[in-house]
């Protein structure tokens, strides 16, 4: 069902998928609605104007779905997780070190009337992906009595503060490992658990 969005401020506006010569954008609003649309050649700025003007937006409502959001304990990942929860999805959040932030985000999701679970993972440590996949499977069975989830949001990321000309090989390898290699093999490991008709979204807060 297509409805018009109310005039409210977005939590974030971000391009998240290349589609031919266009980029598909995603905006999350304070009431939990999501706005998707193609960006013109002007890119994110024009999409931002569309968000501001509320021109023919599409709201998505997600019910009885489970999303796994890596890096969902803070930043953009937390906003994505909360937006999904406001639209009716349950969420599995991950954190790397800040467990307290993850617990706070999970509690906020539960306050919205949705289920939440919290798991630890370092997406740079590929050797532990088997253990993480087993933890996801156990969590699904114990919390939802399911063997699959619906949406995988690869969001976890790191940043390098060094300017381009000062980036070391070590920093470059770390960025590549977290943002590409880790994402690739984590998705590969979790793919058997993603339900038919599910979706994979790759973004980053790094």
**What letter string, H or E per element, gives the SSE order?**
EEEHEHEHEHEHE
Proportion in β-strands: 25-35%
Gyration radius (Cα, Å) is 17 Å
Class computed from helices, strands and strand pairing: alpha/beta
The main β sheet shows up as:
5 strands, parallel
Low-pLDDT parts are: 1-44
User: What form results from the Cα inertia axes?
Assistant: globular
Number of strands: 8
Average pLDDT works out at: 77
The portion of residues assigned to helices is 25-40%
Spatial ordering of strands, largest sheet: 6-5-4-7-8
Number of continuous helical runs: 5
First-residue to last-residue Cα separation: 35 Å
What does this structure look like?
With 206 residues, the protein is α/β, with parallel strands linked by helices. Helices cover 35% and strands 26% of the residues. It has five helices and eight strands, in the order βββαβαβαβαβαβ. The strands form two sheets. Strands 6-5-4-7-8 form a five-stranded parallel beta sheet, with helices on both faces. The longest helix is centred in the last third of the chain and has 22 residues, at 169-190.
What features would you highlight for this structure?
206 residues; alpha/beta; 5-stranded parallel sheet; 3-stranded antiparallel sheet; 8 strands; 35% helix; disordered N terminus
List the topology elements:
Blueprint: E1 10-19, E2 22-29, E3 34-39, H1 44-53, E4 66-69, H2 75-86, E5 90-95, H3 99-111, E6 116-120, H4 129-144, E7 149-154, H5 169-190, E8 194-202
Parallel strand pairs: 4-5, 4-7, 5-6, 7-8
Antiparallel strand pairs: 1-2, 2-3
């Amino acid at each position: 069902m297509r409805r018009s969005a109310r005039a409210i401020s977005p939590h974030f506006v971000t391009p998240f998928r290349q589609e031919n010569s266009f980029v598909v954008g995603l905006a999350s609003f304070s009431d939990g609605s999501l706005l998707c649309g193609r960006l013109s050649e002007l890119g994110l700025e024009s999409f931002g104007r569309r968000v501001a003007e509320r021109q023919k937006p599409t709201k998505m409502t997600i019910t009885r779905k489970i999303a796994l959001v890596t890096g969902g304990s803070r930043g953009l990942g937390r906003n994505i997780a909360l937006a999904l929860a406001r639209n009716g999805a349950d969420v599995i959040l991950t954190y790397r070190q800040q467990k307290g932030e993850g617990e706070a985000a999970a509690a906020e999701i539960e306050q919205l009337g949705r289920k939440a679970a919290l798991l630890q993972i370092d997406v740079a440590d590929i050797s532990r992906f088997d253990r993480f996949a087993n933890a996801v499977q156990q969590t699904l069975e114990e919390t939802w009595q399911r063997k699959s989830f619906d949406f995988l949001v690869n969001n976890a990321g790191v940043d390098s503060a060094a300017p381009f000309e000062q980036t070391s090989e070590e920093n470059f390898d770390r960025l590549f490992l977290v943002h590409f290699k880790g994402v690739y093999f984590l998705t590969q490991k979790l793919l058997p658990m993603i339900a038919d008709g599910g979706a994979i979204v790759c973004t980053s807060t790094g």
